[in-house]
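Re: that chain you flagged

S.,

Sorry for the slow reply, it's been a week of failed gels. I finally had a moment to sit down with the sequence you sent. For the record, here it is as I used it:
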Amino acid sequence: MRAQINSSHRLLTLHPNGPFALIAILLAVNCSGLTNGMAQTAVNKSADNGKIIDKITVIGVRALASSTVLVLSGAQIGDVSTRQNLEEIRTRLVNTGMFGIHNPDDQDEWVRLRVEAEGYPAGHCELLIVVDENDKVSAVNISGAGPIPTDDLLPFLHVGSVFNTVEMARSRRSIQEMYASRGYVMTYGGEFGFDPQNPGILSISIVVARVRDIHISGNHITRAFVIRREMKTAEGGYINRKVLSEDVHHLAALGLFSDIDPLVTPVTAGQVSVDMKLAEKKAHQYNVGSSYGGGVLAGFVEVSDNNFRGQGELLGLHIEDGLGANRHSYQASFVEPYIDRRGTSMTLNAFDVRSSVFSDSLLGVSSGSQAGTYVQEKIGGSMLFKRPLPRGYSIGAGLKGETISTDDSTLGGVNSLIVQDGPLALANLEVSHSTVDQKNDPVTGGLQKLLVDVGHADLHTAVLESNLAGQHNFVRSSIELERFINLQQPRTPEHPDSARNALAIRLQAGSAAGILPFTEQYFLGGATGLRGYRDGRFWGQNMAAGTLEYRHPLMRDFKGVLFADAGDAWGGNYEGVALEGFSQTGFKVHASTGAGIRVGTPLGQVRLDYGYGDEGGRVHFGVGYSF
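Prediction finished late last night. Pasting the structure tokens below so you have them in one place:
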């Protein structure tokens, strides 16, 4: 009489190797040709070349339906029970990964096929498929997931389904890829399989690499804490290559280093060592020079230290004198990049500047005899506090105070409205969002900035009964949008400031309410605004401007620029002022095109542009990044 096999005879016991059963099965399932070799013993000797299968019975299933096993096997009523066909049926079932976890070392027991002819006509038989079905995953115990929530890993582990070694191998890879995509380095611990004490509980041990130590070298002037405060990578924390790349960008933005080379070295299981190899730039700058313009010789001395006390502080002093022409510029500045643990910076400025306004001389010094110019002196100071916020945002607030005095000897008629002497105070608020890859020479990302100034002036004018005299309040607001497009391959973490072809786009707009002093209007024209026109050529209570630049590296620290500028400033109380060559005509778009060069120097970037617009062409010189 044929023996009856009941699936209830399959006990939920695990192999003594416990968690390592999965590893054994993963290796076995992926070995080439393995299942064909096992079929010789897992297919009973009753198999022959002539019997037609009249019935198929599946034995050993628990969570799976018999119909599911039949579909996976590919066996059908009417098939011939040749040994080759039976071996193919067995191979298909074994390769599903759903069988054999209870007998990882006895692969014949994973799937067994038996052909029974008793009780069937000659040439016909019944096919018995006996399976060792894997346990159902009822729950998952994950240890060491670290910075990634376990809920993010559960979708890979198929809780509620029969344990599948093939799918689990894919899940192992997918989990590793998830960690890698988020910048982390992870491996699996020794435990990855069912808990021997808790059938159906899948145990997974994850090891996410941490930073054992950080070594900093090459910082002969810069103190170590200045470097560490710019880094989110910290000893004892998880190593993340994306965060480390951002650390390199932050360090590069300080402007203190010519080369930054991070090296990550595995030291023990789950631990790495980070070496930050730095090359410092020259911190101290001493510059002496002179210029000649407007019939006057001017000399200047400039001293700066952008790494004062080795703490990343900036200290600067600029002294310029007209050498007998009663023109001068005395300016002192100090920047403390961190006044608290949140990265709030403080900028202080003090100035005493007496110069010819609308002068053509390079340093704003002239004899005063040029038509359309006048001499004005401003004495005062300013302070600005700026704090970074999450996701590239920042907020700033500041105060500025100055006293204005004007020499009206060259001004008459309606132009006398310019003569406005007295104290002026400003409070300003700035909100910005930046995604640029580099602060000084970006090639990707963008910048959005909103500025609001609230001012109070108590001015005396040369025009009697002028509504511009006395105490007045005003509000001035502007918005600036910048976008940078890299036209070559991306910069690498190893070379975050490498030169690239890029497009740079800037849009600006502003408007003011209240009675504005002449000096607090929007001015457009010159090296930083509308090139091809004299500095401050257009003024008014409103402003709109746009710039498009193509930047092309030519050699180290040297690049060429093609540009197009357009815009205007208009409106307000001073449209009637008509300085030589500076009459205003209301709103009208003025445009220019041109070319220039950029040269990297110890002073910073030197800009030399030639622009051609409605009023001819002009050469513009500047130091520093315009945007």
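What I noticed first: The longest helix spans residues 165-181.

Talk soon,
D.
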